[in-house]
Records
---
Amino acid sequence: NDFDLVKFSEEIAEEMQVMAKQNQNIIYQHTGTKSTVNLDEKLLKNCINNLITNAIKYSGENTFIDFTTEINQHHCIITVKDNGIGIPEADQKHLFEAFFRAHNTGTIPGTGLGLNIVTRYAGLMNGIVDFKSVINQGTLFTISFPLS
Ligand code: ATP
Ligand code: MG
C-alpha cells in the first residue's frame, strides 16, 4: 500500500529534531515528481530513526544533519548525512556486524546494534544500505530500495 513519503519524512524530521543537540538542525528535502511509495512504513521508520539517531549522537553541536528522500523511476533512495566524528577506515568493513562499535566513539554510549537492524530491515524490503565516511569530517548513509 502506497503512502506519502514526504509527509511521513517531514514528521520523522520533526520528531527527531526534538532529540537533537543544541543547534543541530535536521534539514529534510525530497527530490522527484512523485511522493508516494509502497514500502513497509514501520520498518522504514525504524531504519531512518536509527540513522538520524546516529547522526545526532556522532556529531557535535551547531551543525546540520541532512535527511533526503528521492523517488525516481526505479528507486526510492533515503540519505542521512552528518558532519560528525566519522568512521575510521579500518573499522568501516565491520560496521554492519552486530555489537560492533568503531574505535573513535570514546564515551558516546551505544550497543552496536542499530546499523545491524537497519541492514536487516532494509533487506526485508530489498533495500541496500551503503555509506561513505571520512574521519573527523562526517558520514553519509544511503538506503536504496528498488521499485517494481
Ligand atoms: P545502538 O545499538 O544504540 O544504535 P551504536 O550507535 O553504537 O548503538 P550502531 O548504530 O550499529 O550502534 O553503529 C555502529 C557503530 O558505527 C557506532 O558505534 C559508531 O562507532 C559507528 N557509527 C554509526 N553511525 C555513525 C555516524 N553517523 N558517525 C560516526 N560513526 C557512526
Ligand atoms: Mg546507533
---
Amino acid sequence: MNLDLAYRSFVLGVAGNPRVERLIKDRAKGLVRRYVAGETLEEALQAAEALEREGVHAILDLLGEGVKTEEEARAFQRGILELVWALAERPWPKYVSLKPTQLGLDLSEALALSLLREVLREAEPRGVFVRLDMEDSPRVEATLRLYKALREEGFSQVGVVLQSYLYRTEKDLLDLLPYRPNLRLVKGAYREPKEVAFPDKRLIDAEYLHLGKLALREGLYVAFATHDPRIIAEVKRYTQAMGVPKERFEFQLLYGVRPEEQRRLAREGYTVRAYVPYGTHWYPYLARRIAERPENLFLVLRSLFGG
Ligand code: FDA
C-alpha cells in the first residue's frame, strides 16, 4: 500500500475512536466552516445561492449516514423531503445527494427502498434529481440493487455513483449499461482492504480515467467528481479529441475544495456542480476530508497544540 492510502487508512481507523471524535469535534471548527455550509437548510441554500452567482450549481446534501433505528431513518427522510420541497420553490439548484444508510439500509433494504421511493415520488415531479451516494464496499451490492429497483419502477431522476478504487467497478459499470445510468464517477473515500480495492493510488487514478472513458464511449452521461488537476485536464482533452459535447458530462467538486477551479471550469463553459453538505451530523464527512488531505490533520493538530 502506498503512503497516501496508508495515511487514509490510519486516519479513518483512529477517527472511529470516541476520544478522537471528541477532540476533532472540539478542535476542527475552522475545517468544519470550510467544508460544511452550515447546520441549517437556510444556510445551505444561502451557500447555494452564492455558488450560483458564480455559475456553479449546488448539490445539496443533508449530512447523515449509518443510522441505527427506523425512527432515525424516517427523521432523515423528513429532512430530505423538506429539502426537496424547498428546492422546488426555486429555479435552481434542483439536485440532492443522499446516502442509502441514512435511510436505513443497514437495518433493512426494504425500508431503504420504501423511503427512497417516497423521496423520488416527491422529487421527480418537481424536477429535482436524486443522487444515491456510494458508501463503503459492504454496501455497494445493496446500493446498486436499490438503484436498479428504482429504475425498474420507472423513476428516471435518480443517479448512481461508482468508485474507481474497487476491483469490481468495471463489471458493475457493464452491468449497469442497460439502465443507461446518469453516473457519478469518484475515486472512493472509504477505508477498504486490499482484497477489494487497489492498494496503489496510481492504479486508482488510471482506473478512474479508464472507467470514465468507457462510460463516455458507451454514451452515458458522466459526472466526473474529482479535484485532481491531471484527471480534469485529461477529461477535457479526451472529450475534445473525441468530439464529446459538453452536454454529455460535467465536473463535480466538493464545497470548499478548489473553489477557484470550480469558477474557472464554469467560465470555460463546462457544467460544474459543488457538493454542499449541511446539517449537524458532519463528523464522518469531515473525517473523510481529513483522510484525503494531510494538511487538514496538521490544522487540527495545530489547534490542539497552538491553543
Ligand atoms: P485526490 O485525492 O487524488 O486529490 C487530488 C487533488 O485534489 C489533491 O492533490 C488536492 O489538491 C485536492 N484535494 C483532494 N481532496 C481534497 C480535500 N479534502 N481538501 C482540499 N483539497 C483536496 N466518494 C465516495 O466514496 N462515494 C461518493 O458518493 C462520493 N461522492 C463524491 C461527490 C463529489 C462531488 C466529490 C468531489 C467527491 C465524492 N467522493 C465520494 C469523494 C471521492 O471518492 C474522493 O475521496 C475525493 O474526491 C478526493 O479524491 P480526488 O478525486 O479529488 O483526488
